[in-house]
Amino acid sequence: MNMGSNPINLFFRFLLELAALISFGYWGWQTGDEWFRYLLVILAPLIGALVWGTFAVPDDPSRSGKAPVPTPGWLRLILELAIFALASLALAKTGELNLALILGVLVVIHYVFSFDRMHWLLGLD
Questions:
Q1: Of 1, 53, 62, 119, which residue is 20 to 30 A from 35 by alpha carbon distance?
Q2: What is the overall mean pLDDT for the chain?
Q3: pTM, 2 dp
Q4: Which residues contact 56 (CB under 8 A, 6 or more apart)?
């Protein structure tokens, strides 16, 4: 069985994606002043979601298979890791160190169980 496309693992990754977007919004709220915080609360998660949804590997079995902007597997993996790292950093910057650590550990657990997908993304199959 492919763990990277296992429905439980895909649901887990979806929850991590939501946590990342919420982290970006929380950072925006904590960072911005007055009206600017409202802009950051909207723009930070929106940019994260756009990057996540736009750059994809064609025929990725863990996604819809559609790739608005076809991206090599290694680049997609770097983008995913960067978004999760930035989400953890956003939490850390707002003083939520425990949440940042928890998110980081959960992301590592997800990728450990997605070793087959990582091999596919890196072209090691």
A1: 53
A2: 92
A3: 0.92
A4: 63, 66, 67, 68, 69, 70, 71, 76
